[in-house]
Amino acid sequence: MQALTTRSKVAVNKKMTFKERLYIPAILGGLSITLRHFFKKKVTIQYPEQTREFAPVYRGHHVLKRDENGAERCTACGLCAVACPAEAITMVAAERKKGEEALYREEKYAAVYEINMLRCIFCGLCEEACPKEAIFLTDEMVLTDYGRKGFVHGKDKLVEPMDKDKRIDVSKRQTKEVAEFKTHPEFAHNQLYTKSLK
Ligand code: SF4
Ligand code: SF4
After folding, report:
1. Rounded Cα gap, residues 130 and 121, in angstroms
2. Is residue 157 part of a domain?
3. Which atom of ligand 1 is nearest to the CA of 127?
4. What's the sign of the alpha-carbon dihedral 178, 113, 121, 62?
5. CA–CA separation, 68 and 71 (whole Å)
């Protein structure tokens, strides 16, 4: 049979030499490696007391954005769920009723919107697919939980706060190219969002 790699070794049941049977050279060899690493700069840190700076493009917990008037942007079109390679997003759409214009920007909205954080691979495709600039990945870490159910995040954890001071600014995370693309008149996803960038 042809080997899949050039690094493969054929195992042979050969007798150990006297040096190998002593084990001491092998133990000393192992100890010397440990000693060498002992004096090298440590690559580990004392987490959680110490933390590392995240990359500016770190993709963490999602946020469902509100528009400048506080209404939810999401129109429950389902494009994010279709784009999601991990099938982590589920939603239930509902029709907006009269008098709810301040709550939901579009005539249809997500009555239920859930992301299973255990399935999510934080690829950001949901963000790219969204035609309403409603979903973004932030630099917030997904908090841990004791049970699997706790990782299914609903609107209570995803929709950003109504309070303007507590809104999550995602504009700094948009690359120049993406920001430019969104202002292109032919491809502009969302006129309201585009205006807010200016
Ligand atoms: S980041 Fe990727 S895997 Fe996670 S919900 Fe969005 S599309 Fe799915
Ligand atoms: S987050 Fe965007 S893509 Fe997903 S359902 Fe809402 S509007 Fe559609």
Report:
1. 17
2. yes
3. 6
4. positive
5. 8
Q: pLDDT (tens digit, 9 = 90+) per residue, 47-87? A: 889 988 888 788 999 999 999 899 999 999 999 999 999 99
* Domains of the chain: total: 1
pLDDT of 186 strictly over 70: no
- Residue owning the nearest CA to atom 4 of ligand 1: 120
Q: Nearest Cα to 122, choosing from 190, 74, 62, 167?
A: 62
> What is the pLDDT, as a whole number, of residue 136?
94
**Who has greater pLDDT, 96 or 5?**
96
Domain-embedded: residue 31:
no
Mean pLDDT of 119-139: 93
- Closest listed ligand to the CA of 122: 1
Residue nearest (by alpha carbon) to ligand 2 atom 6: 74
Amino acid (1-letter code) at residue 174: Q
The CATH number for 71's domain is: 3.30.70.3270
Structural domain contains residue 6: no
Question: What pLDDT is stored for residue 82 in this prediction?
Answer: 96
CA of 78 to the centre of ligand 2 (A): 6
DSSP 28: H
Nearest CA to ligand 2 atom 5: 76
Q: Is 17 exposed, middle or buried (0-12, 13-18, 19+ CB in 10 A)?
A: exposed
CA distance 144 to 4: 40
